Amino acid sequence: VSDELGYYYTLAGYANGFRDPHININPRTLLPAARWPGFIAAARGDMAVVVQRDPSDPAAPALGATIERCDGEALPSLAQSRVFPFTFNAALPADRRRAITRLFLDRGNPFAPSPVRCSVRTGDRVEQIALRWREVAKPDEAFWAEYANAAVGPAATIHMSLPDLCTYA
Questions:
Q1: Could you say which of 94, 131, 134, 154 is the most buried, measured as most Cβ atoms within 10 Å of its Cβ?
Q2: Is the pLDDT of residue 165 over 80?
Q3: CA distances (Å), origin 46, targets 75, 101, 137, 159
Q4: Distance separating alpha carbons of residues 48 and 151, to the nearest angstrom
Q5: pLDDT for res 158
Q6: Residue 70: which of 54, 91, 46 has the closest Cα?
Q7: Rounded to the nearest 5°, which phi and psi values hold at 139?
Q8: Could you give the CA distance from residue 166 to residue 41 in angstroms, rounded to a whole number?
Q9: Which residue from 100, 89, 86 is spatially nearest to 40, judged by alpha carbons?
Q10: Whole-structure pTM over 0.90, yes or no?
């Protein structure tokens, strides 16, 4: 490798090869700004469904559209080559779900290029679209909440109450 980003992703791949979530590599410098193609997708079987989109981008797929393939590959195959070598564990169903969402987030990994073209189904129509990658807009808290919701599902709601106290006569 010839730069810090390549070095970081080389070490991330090495550490992830142990499939032990207790081993972690953190970059010494900031990773490039997160980029997205104007939509967030959630895994639905071997495909992904658009669950969030940039409303200012008329080219972004519609909410509910299904992404069937990217760069000529089924999404699980693409995740196998571009996500799992560096993060997550393909043996875990939850990580397979997270990896589909992760395909549509670019953090500058020189060994795992972001998808360029995808087959998108909207109703009965399937079209090839070119992905238009751009930085996540600031403030980005809403983006990361939507991204986490797509990747792992909505957060659990926790309610607590005090039990009724009974008195004995």
A1: 131
A2: no
A3: 6, 12, 29, 35
A4: 11
A5: 81
A6: 46
A7: -70, 150
A8: 50
A9: 100
A10: no
DSSP code, position 14: H
pLDDT in tens, 4-28: 999 999 999 999 999 998 998 888 8
CA-closest candidate to residue 106, choices 40, 58, 18, 61: 40
Render pLDDT for 96-125 as a digit per residue (tens, 0 to 9).
Answer: 999 999 999 999 999 999 999 999 999 999
What does the block give as tokens for 125? Answer: 């129509």
Residue for token pair 């997270």: 98
| CB 41 within 8 Å of CB 48 | yes
Q: What DSSP line would sit under 36-98, residue for residue? A: E-SEEEEEETTEEEEEEE-TT-TTSPPTT-EEEEETTEEHHHHHHHHTTTTSS-TTSHHHHHH
DSSP 132-160: --EEPPSS-HHHHHHHHHHHH-PPPP---
- Distance separating alpha carbons of residues 99 and 115, to the nearest angstrom: 13
Nearest-Å Rg of the Cα atoms of the chain is 19
For residue 151, give the amino acid letter: A
